[in-house]
Design brief:
kinase; Rossmann fold; Type_II_PanK; kinase activity; 8-stranded mixed beta sheet; alpha/beta; nucleotide-binding
């Protein structure tokens, strides 16, 4: 379903993702959020479809969005969940990716969660099933969603009404192989007819899916933290990728 920007998916690609992060941290052990903000490329970005995306937002809301999340911490709390909240506010019903089979975790039971009916549309936020680097996991997403729901009525009502669901990808990798997703997730996406796919992070959006041609609208978002990859794309370290694509007619 996607083409790898490099020789092969498993070994080399994952090592390049890890290597990029290691170079950044070793060059400055005190490197943190403020340092990262100062190094980010200013617009126009290396790949910059942001204006095109803003124009799209003036149109009707998406029916079903699938979001593959990347890092834990600030990234998911101040980046992903506000984006999910915005989609909910636009009228798109959201599913944050997690396994639907089996008994409900205590957090979902506390929200009064119920399975959506066949006519419900969703946004599916994909979190790893197991740990990889600093990526957010499904179990972490349950905790984060619960705490956000305690503060925010939009997220709380979406969880209670089954418009915001927590699901997992079946992966424990910093990359994303769209041909090896959790079966339950793949079936759900097919049933709901996703019309927007958001792939976040260098490993998932660039190393493994940069040239993936999807059948619906897509956003591929990343900051380049690998010098080899930055040069190959014609940029530099901390170049920004904001790639919005619409399928060919």
């Amino acid at each position: 379903m996607g083409q790898v920007l490099g020789p092969s998916l498993p070994a080399r690609t994952q090592e390049e993702v890890r290597g990029g992060l290691q170079v950044v941290l070793e060059s400055d052990p005190q490197f943190g959020f403020e340092e990262a903000k100062r190094k980010l490329q200013e617009r126009p970005w290396l790949v910059d479809s942001y204006g095109k995306w803003l124009q799209r937002l003036k149109g009707p809301p998406h029916k079903c969005a699938l979001i593959f999340a990347d890092n834990s911490g600030v990234d998911v709390i101040l980046g992903v969940f506000p984006f999910v909240r915005e989609l909910l506010s636009r009228g798109t019903e959201v599913s944050v990716e997690g396994r639907m089979a089996g008994p409900l975790p205590s957090s979902r039971a506390r929200w009064g969660w119920r399975r959506p009916g066949p006519l419900h549309v969703q946004v599916i936020l994909a979190c790893n099933s197991g740990p990889a680097l600093n990526d957010v996991t499904y179990s972490e997403s349950l905790i984060v969603a619960e705490r956000i729901a305690a503060m925010d009525p939009i997220v709380r009502s979406a969880l209670r009404e089954g418009r915001l669901l927590l699901m997992q990808t079946g992966s424990s990798s910093p990359c994303l192989d769209l041909s090896r997703l959790d079966k339950g997730l793949a079936v759900l996406v097919r049933e709901r007819g996703a019309d927007l796919v958001v792939i976040e992070g260098m490993g998932r959006a660039v190393h493994t899916n940069y040239h993936a041609a999807l059948r619906c609208e897509s956003l591929k978002l990343a900051v380049i933290k690998n010098s080899w990859l930055a040069e190959r794309l014609g940029g530099r370290l901390f170049s920004v990728i904001f790639k919005y694509e619409v399928p060919a007619e």
